[in-house]
Design a protein that fits this description.
This protein has 981 residues and is α+β, with helices and mostly antiparallel strands. The radius of gyration is 29 Å and the shape is globular.
Length: 981
């Protein structure tokens, strides 16, 4: 489970004998000693040109040099996850992931000698608590734990890990735990590699289980969020059916409620000692670095870690599934059908086969599910995907029913596509086209260091040789259509698990109750000696690079009046082309429906299915979509087919043919999707309620066609709008390998437009609502948690305040070392997710907003609201956080690079804000001279003393309305109020 927070594991040098912790040393080399040489493995035809090292202690190191920007994506992977949890203490791997961010005996503490005995006593008390069944005795022990935890916390320095990585400009700092891996990630500046390695070596040397009881409460929050999440329930039931013996299905990553209530820190320590050893770990990096120097640094930092034998995990042999296993689950979200088939693990030939079959079924364009179900509007959003793991794999099919459609019929339609595979009832070219599509996906994926390093993690966790991992496409090329048919007949029978997600009340849901926790002291102004050394370590500076719009983007005109903005792709032979109009759903409510209609249409020459096939055969695709003020026509794919793909696209825009049946189905599906949106808490809060809080009853979100207007639409109306797209003023964006001259020639020839282009019509203005007084808007939703979003309207976009807003956000509420996070999550354990920021609009006619969010248990509502409003009323001061926030911003700006097609869209975004230069240049210059007084001044002017629209989503009978009334007039809103229908 992805951790919004992370934390640390325990160890105390005073109790080394008791804990048997691995104690590692870093050995410096004597002066004049010859440099050690390191052997590494490479693989022919490897798209990542990877080097794979194995240190003497068994640590695996994967490296790929990719200098797209002066940054390095890092992962440290441990080959242990929830499948390795003891059956009587599930959730250990996940606990440990959290605790690996809490520090060691050298950081995260002001005085470890005094802290350690208290932590030791807390550990023992948890064991006593776990062993006691008497309710009163357990409560008394927990009271003692709470008291001792507060004493121990006086020596703790929360979030010191985050402060250190933030100070040198790390991004994406996070971690996740799943069934057989725990992975720790950072995206770091290239000049901070040694600092990062120093910190990580210390982190894994001797983690200390400090601040355990507040972090345990955070895990409670995460558990309750999963109980409110229908998707989590689907996965739990699917895996429980597929894996009735394996811990994939018999255990969950977060753990059971019973085990959460009775945790064992000692077992977490034992787990760390067992699995967090170098021969069970890998460092995976991709980015801008020198491999030879880097492996020496890694060996210096990690080479002293001692290996240990790893307990063998023997996967249980699952019994064959003889008949379909059908499970019904209930929850507030829309109905869904999920079907899963079980297969052998990653190393098997079956894993290759289902990877290819998945593409034949669903590739987003011309797979069997794409054409037979989605294109023909037989279901809503049908798809296919694989879940490949070390011991077993799963192939999953899913779809949502259309209005009035039974879940049984949806299941039959999905299974019917497998029958076509068995018969070989699909065109011969599809197999090769699917392989070409996979190659294209890989090319695009490997343009990002995040995905490159992620591939290393995958291979390591599976225990798969890199040569085999990189050769998968070659293996797939040897599979024939006859092979697919034989495999499908042999493996896709009645041996599946089907989960029917139904809309209704789940009477089985329990809840992890809130324990009594005394807020701990937050020593935010204290820095350990270790952290100070890491933070103050100097590195060779990297000069920032900002975009010069005039130099970095080429422009010319076609048809005399259409501007083309051009950026050459020098890396590979793929392209992206966009037609962009400054016209969206605010201008015409029909636009969105017209664009949704277009994919279901053919032309005079092609049927809708033939058109999809024509694009897929040449490795290209197109899409059309709109926002409230923009319309995009997108074309992408292999450059060798650019001319052909562009001709097809123009044919679609100018010669789309009416389809009465498709429109009728589309309108039904839109109405069904609208009804489903009212069942989704994310849609309710982050779209409907958010827009209501900003605009009131009438907003861009509610600016949609009524049911009656939808049902009165005709194909001719929509086709007329589609065919007018190229006739309005627009511009072209291109990123690809074509020369400027060749591109201009192609566009002049193929892009069809009238002699003069029509002006974009005016759009009605949606005025953001002034926050005149505090108001509380509540929407009733069946959930265990309460989610609270607070909004206060500021002034119109002002580029001059962006540097100060950026500095304030980093300090106050953006990251895990921010004031808001430390106070409300770390000190008071009031939320799993909490943040706050002064928002930057996307358009110059929009306003800034002060926004704050906290997701908490309903019984913590009073404390959560009070805690957040305290911070919005009085700004805590921390010079340590000020320094960390400043350095984080500056280091990120020094090493951030806007490249590839992003340059074009960065320019588009700048124009919307009325900017003619890269605003990051101004932020970089001004933040350098800022201090706490600038943050305080910003806070006084834009934050404190403001009124708020407080949006609360939760179960009405579990919310304390009297508490809410303290913050403003409470008004209960219906779903119709916030959705407008």
């Amino acid at each position: 489970m992805m951790r919004l927070k992370h934390l640390s594991a325990v160890i105390f040098f005073v109790f080394l004998a008791l804990f048997s912790f691995r104690h590692s040393q870093v050995f410096a080399r004597e002066a004049g000693e010859p440099k050690k040489t390191y052997s590494f493995k490479t693989v022919p035809n490897d798209p990542l040109h990877a080097r794979i090292y194995t240190l003497e202690n068994g640590l695996t190191v994967y490296m790929s040099v990719y200098k797209d920007k002066p940054r390095i994506q890092t992962y440290i992977a441990v080959r242990a996850g929830s499948k390795n949890d003891p059956s009587d203490a599930t959730g250990l791997a996940h606990y440990l992931e959290h605790l690996l961010f809490k520090g060691t005996s050298r950081y995260g503490t002001m005085n470890y000698e005094k802290e350690a005995p208290l932590i030791r006593e807390i550990i023992d008390l948890y064991e006593a608590h776990r062993a006691t069944s008497d309710t009163l005795a357990k409560k008394a022990i927990y009271h003692r734990i709470d008291s001792l935890s507060n004493l121990a916390a006086k020596y703790a320095i929360p979030n010191e890990y985050d402060k250190m990585v933030g100070s040198f400009g790390a991004k994406r700092t996070n971690a996740y735990t799943w069934v057989e891996q725990t992975v720790y990630m950072n995206d770091i500046p290239a000049n901070r590699l040694e600092q990062w390695l120093t910190l990580e070596a210390e982190r894994f040397r001797e983690p200390v289980m400090r601040l355990f009881h507040t972090e345990l409460e955070v895990v409670y929050e995460e558990k309750n969020r999963s109980l409110d999440n229908d998707n989590s329930k689907i996965w739990h039931n699917l895996f429980a059916g597929l894996f009735q013996k394996h811990t994939y299905g018999t255990q969950t990553t977060i753990g059971t409620i019973e085990h959460l209530k009775n945790p064992s820190i000692q077992k977490v320590i034992d787990y760390f000692n067992t699995y967090y050893v170098p021969n069970n770990m890998a460092i995976c990096i991709s980015g801008d670095f020198d491999p030879d120097e880097t492996i020496r640094m890694i060996d210096d930092k990690f080479g002293g870690f001692q290996p240990k034998p790893i307990p063998e995990f023997v996967p249980p042999v699952e019994d064959d599934i003889q008949q379909p296993i059908v499970k019904d689950i209930y929850g507030p979200d829309a109905e869904d059908v999920i079907i899963g088939f079980r297969f052998p693990g990653a190393e098997s030939e079956d894993a290759d086969m289902i990877t290819l079959i998945d593409k034949l079924l669903y590739n987003g364009t011309a797979g069997l599910i794409d054409l037979n179900l989605n294109q023909k509007q037989k279901t809503l959003g049908a798809n296919s995907f694989t879940v490949v793991m070390k011991d077993y794999s799963a192939h999953v099919l899913s779809a949502q029913p259309r209005e009035g459609q039974s879940l049984d019929s949806v299941r039959a339609l999905l299974l019917g596509q497998l029958e076509l595979l068995k018969k070989g009832d699909y065109p011969d070219w599809l197999l090769q086209a699917a392989l070409s599509d996979m190659k294209l996906e890989q090319i695009k994926s490997y343009e990002d260091n995040y995905n490159r390093a992620k591939a290393f993690v995958e291979a390591f966790v599976w225990g798969m040789d890199w040569e085999k991992y990189t050769a998968q496409l070659s293996r797939l090329e040897r599979i024939t259509k006859a092979d697919v048919s034989r495999f499908a007949k042999a493996h896709y029978k009645n041996n599946y698990v089907a989960v029917y997600k139904k809309t209704g009340v789940d009477t089985t849901v329990e809840k992890v109750e809130k324990p009594e926790i005394t807020p701990i002291q937050v020593n935010r102004d204290t820095v350990s000696a270790f952290a100070k050394k890491v933070i103050t370590t100097k590195a060779k500076p990297i000069a920032p690079v900002f975009i010069d719009f005039k130099k970095d983007i080429r422009s010319f005109k076609i048809q005399k009046s259409i501007p083309v903005f051009y950026k050459k792709n020098t890396e590979n032979q793929t392209f992206n082309l966009y037609y962009i109009l400054d016209m969206g759903t605010n201008h015409d409510k029909t636009i969105g429906v017209a664009l949704d209609y277009l994919p279901y249409l053919g032309t005079s020459k092609y049927s809708p299915e033939e058109l999809k096939e024509a694009f897929y055969k040449i490795g290209c695709s197109f899409s059309v979509f709109s926002s409230e003020d923009r319309l995009y026509v997108s074309l992408s794919g292999l450059s060798e087919y650019f001319d052909k793909a562009l001709s097809l696209l123009e044919e679609v825009l100018w010669d789309a043919q009416p389809n009465e049946e498709a429109l009728k189905n589309l309108i039904q599906d839109i109405l069904k999707s609208r009804a489903d949106a009212k069942l989704s808490k994310n849609e309710i809060l982050w779209k409907a309620m958010l827009n209501y809080g900003k605009y009131g009853e009438k907003s861009p979100y509610t600016n949609i066609l009524s049911k009656e207007e939808l049902q009165s639409l005709t194909p001719e109306t929509l086709l007329s709008l589609i065919k007018r797209i190229p006739t309005y003023e627009h511009r072209v964006l291109y990123y690809g390998p074509e020369s400027e001259k060749a591109l201009k020639k192609t566009l002049q020839k193929l892009h069809r437009t009238p002699k003069s282009l029509a002006k974009i019509p005016d759009a009605p203005a949606f005025k953001e609502k002034e926050t005149g007084e505090n108001q509380v808007f509540v929407v009733d939703y069946d959930m265990k948690q309460a989610e609270i979003l607070m909004l206060s309207k500021g002034g119109l976009y002002d580029k001059d305040i962006v540097p100060a807003a950026t500095f304030f956000n980093e300090y106050f509420g953006k990251g895990m070392s921010s004031v808001v996070f430390q106070e409300l999550r770390e000190a008071k354990a009031l939320a799993y997710s909490v943040f706050s920021s002064y928002t930057i609009p996307k358009r110059k006619e929009q306003s800034h907003f002060m926004a704050a969010y906290i997701g908490t248990q309903s019984d913590k509502l009073a404390d959560a609201m009070s805690g957040m409003f305290d911070l919005l009323g009085t700004l805590p001061k921390s010079e340590v956080l000020v320094s960390s926030a400043k350095e984080s911003i500056l280091e990120q700006l020094r090493t951030e690079r806007v490249t590839k097609s992003d340059v074009l869209f960065y320019y588009e975004d700048a124009k919307r804000l009325g900017l003619t230069d890269d605003l990051r240049r101004d932020v970089f210059k001004k933040v350098q001279a800022m201090n706490f007084e600038n943050i305080q001044s910003f806070y006084d002017k834009f934050v404190t003393g403001k009124n708020y629209h407080i949006l609360v989503l939760g179960k009405k009978d579990q919310l304390n309305i009297k508490v809410l009334e303290k913050y403003g007039n409470v008004r209960f809103l219906s779903l119709e109020d916030v959705f407008g229908y």
